[in-house]
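stuck on this chain:
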Amino acid sequence: MSKFAMYGKFKAQPGQGDALAGILLEAAEQSESVAGCELYIVNVSEEDSDTIWVTELWSDAEAHDAFLRNEDAQALIGRARPLIAGVEPVKLRPLGGKGFR
């Protein structure tokens, strides 16, 4: 199995960037205790506070999928959904670099 990485670009409804970022930070906190999650960083665009990026690294795609199916993650997704105007997921296969093992 190979590691799984993903960049998620979330476009919040106008003026809802802080609220959406807060929910995504809750997801990051949940991921601390999830087996297979190696990195989950929430970033906000310097040009647009309603654009939030999430950088993720998982042991494999199955660990990521299991996290999304988790009851607690599903509750966060339900809270976030009305705040989201659009999502652009970018799935990646990491090759190496600093911090990657």
Notes: Residues 21-92 form a domain with the Alpha-Beta Plaits fold (CATH 3.30.70.100). The chain has three helices and four strands. Helices lie at 17-31, 61-69, 71-80.
